[in-house]
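Re: your question about Glutathione S-transferase

S., sorry for the slow reply, the queue was backed up all week. Below is exactly what I fed in.
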Amino acid sequence: MASSASLPVYHYLDIGRLGRGEVVNLFLQDAGIEFKKSLYPWDATWPQKSNDLKEKGLTRTGKLPALEYKGKILTQHIPILRYLSREIGSYDGETNWEKYVVDAVSDIYVDWRSKWVANLSEKKPEYKDQSAPEYYNLVAQYYSATQGPYLLGDKVTYVDFAVYQSIDNDRRTGTLPSTLPESLLKFKSAFEARPNIAEYIRQNE
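Result:
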C-alpha cells in the first residue's frame, strides 16, 4: 500500500455524484487506484476558493476536477482519463480505428455536457424532449455497432465512464428520456455490475 503522502489527490466539488469530476472518480475506483479526496463546498465560498486554487497552481481555469498524480497536476476531465489510460496501458482502443471511435464518442459526450450544464439553470423542456434523446440515439449507434456491452464490445474504455455519467446525471436531474436505446440499457447494466463500480454505487447511491 502506498504511503498517504504519495497517494494521488483528487480535487473536486462536494456535490455528490453529479458533474464531470465524478467521471474521473469512477475511473479511479474501477482501476483500483488508491487516492485521497479533497472536496470543496459549492456555495458562496467557492469563488474565493477557486481563486486560491489558481494561485496554488492546482487549476489554470479555476475549475475542477484536478488530480495530483505522480508529481504532476492533471486537469480537464477527459484529458485526465486519456492520460491515466496511457499510464495504465488499458482503457483505450488498441487499433487506430478503435482509438478514433473512442475519441469520437468522447467528443459527442462533451457536446452533450455543455447542453446539460446550460439546462441546469435554464431548465427548458427542449433539453429533455429534444437534446437528450438526440444525444442518446446518436451514442447508441456507436454502441450497437458491436455486440457490447461496452463501446468496443467486451473491453471497457475511458469514454464508457463518461457515457455512464451522462446517463446517471440525467437521471438525477430528472432529464433522462423515458426510454433509452437497448444498447445503452445493456451497457448501463454491465457497467454497474463491474465489481469496483458496484461496491462504490452501493456505498454512494
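The helical segments are 21-31, 46-55, 77-88, 96-122, 125-143, 158-172, 182-192, 195-203. The two ends are 27 Å apart (CA to CA).

Happy to talk it through on Thursday.
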